[in-house]
Amino acid sequence: MNVETIVFDRKKALDLYRKYKTHQHYAQPIDHAIQRAYQLIAQGRVVIKALESIQLAGLNEKGYPKLAIANATHERCIVEMSNDGSARMARQRWPNRLDRTNVFTFPADTFPRQNKFATAEAQVPLVPIHLRPKRALGNYHVLWEAEWTRMVPHDPMLLRRIKGDMWLVVAAWDLTEVERAALATRLNT
């Protein structure tokens, strides 16, 4: 899976992290997010732009996004594609419009315009127990190559949002055949 990685020199990131830390007494919330991103990059961690990655990956042959994102606790992700090139990914068809954590809205012309309004459903990959955070799984999201059919997905990433479209890659894995078989039981519910 190709994603938009924030590439930055680790030494320079450490220097900038220290500068932000020195001046944190009058920092704004956005400054704390930038400081955290610099700190993670200086530690050698991978920071990506997940929403931009979804946009740049484009649409599959059926007109749905190639990549999807959902909260790690969700079992399914619904995508609603509008004819103006906008889209929305959420756990249900009529999500709470105020939910900025679990509903991802892409504005008009994010994707190529189509002559129809379309909806599809994809299964959210299971986070293997050895990669799962010990608590607060609801604070994490999964990015994966969506099938938008009743098929079990492949190639996911576990992400933690820093701010906006800056996401820390916590883990990346391929689902084993055993995990895929277990997930297939969700298809029947």
Largest sheet: 6 strands, antiparallel
Strand content: 25-35%
N-to-C SSE string, H for helix and E for strand = EHHEHEEEEEEEEH
Number of helices: 4
Question: Uncertain segments of ≥5 residues (pLDDT<50)?
Answer: none
Give helix % range: 10-25%
Shape: globular
State the end-to-end distance: 28 Å
According to DSSP, the number of beta strands is 10
Strand order of the largest sheet: 1-2-10-9-8-3
Oligomerization state of this entry?
A: single chain
Structural class by SSE content: alpha+beta
Please indicate the count of domains. Answer: 1
Rg of Cα set: 18 Å
Could you report the average pLDDT, rounded to the nearest whole number? 90
Annotate the secondary structure layout.
Blueprint: E1 4-5, H1 10-22, H2 29-42, E2 47-49, H3 50-57, E3 67-71, E4 76-81, E5 87-90, E6 104-106, E7 118-123, E8 140-145, E9 154-163, E10 166-172, H4 177-184
Antiparallel strand pairs: 1-2, 2-10, 3-8, 4-5, 4-7, 5-6, 8-9, 9-10
Helix pairs in contact: 1-2
Give a written overview of the molecule.
The longest helix is centred in the first third of the chain and has 14 residues, at 29-42. The chain has 189 residues and is of the alpha+beta class. It is globular. It has one domain. The strands form 2 sheets. Strands 1-2-10-9-8-3 form a 6-stranded antiparallel sheet. The chain has a 4-stranded antiparallel sheet with strand order 6-5-4-7, with no helix packed on it. It contains 4 helices and 10 strands. Helices cover 23% and strands 28% of the residues.
